[in-house]
């Protein structure tokens, strides 16, 4: 497809433009309200807790309340595999990016580069573009499985210098988002009539359909509706929280740190670029092909700033705490600015025909 036409098609996509404008506008609103004093010092942290504990679990679970088909299942498995493989690749690749640094600073920068804010920053944007019950949110939730496995194992061990602890296994598997993702994934996979009792319900098109009894979106909409409302909170609350957090920290100090700028480039530009190149090779060779929608989701997830847990590790274990704070702030600003470009690039790549 002609690249010019691909760009024109992307800018004509109302969902993309709406999501980009909404993201930036609400982040700026959160920033303004924090600077003005409407939002208190801890408001961003409170919003973050609400999003992580309530809104995102509802979004993850609700995204699986749809029929299963072979294409979506196959893509989900490919995304799951890639979501594990890419972190193994990054663990070794980041060694090359920071080989000139001392051991302590190198370890911190590697972990911060490996793990982005896919949950708090990435998934709300995916949901904003494709909708909270779209296949893209399924792909995002499945992709995050590998992320959490490595974040709470490799990330913790690397930053603490200790062996894996039981409390981190609990964080890994009993986190509300992980529980909701696995619960939704299992229910989604078990919808076969031979395995699960089915009920007659009215589908979105107004026609009668037979669905698994736990498809509460159709069999018990009065139960599903609260989850729909909570899912809808994920994106705006996350963006307000990001803006409020940015408004609480001095950008001037972070902007003078050359290491933070180098890190931000690696995290927000190089990491998603590595994903694009490798996924293109895998698609062309048909080794691990992903669909256009899955590709767009992965690019958005990997073009995110520092993961809050990763920066918390650095601060909690006193591993380059100032650098981690500056890197987190600066990468969030850079990611906010560049995310619209990555969304456009993802849409254009989808139009090339490499990804089906």
TrEMBL record:
Keyword annotations: Cell membrane, Membrane, Transmembrane, Transmembrane helix, Transport
Membrane topology: Multi-pass membrane protein
Membrane-spanning segments: 16-34, 46-68, 80-99, 111-130, 136-157, 169-190, 227-247, 268-288, 294-315, 327-349
Keyword rRNA-binding: no
Cross-referenced InterPro entries: Mem_transp_PIN-like
Chief place of localization: membrane
Keyword Cell division included in the entry's annotation: no
Subcellular location: Membrane
Coiled-coil ranges from the UniProt annotation: none
Name of the protein this chain belongs to: Malate permease
Organism field: Oenococcus alcoholitolerans
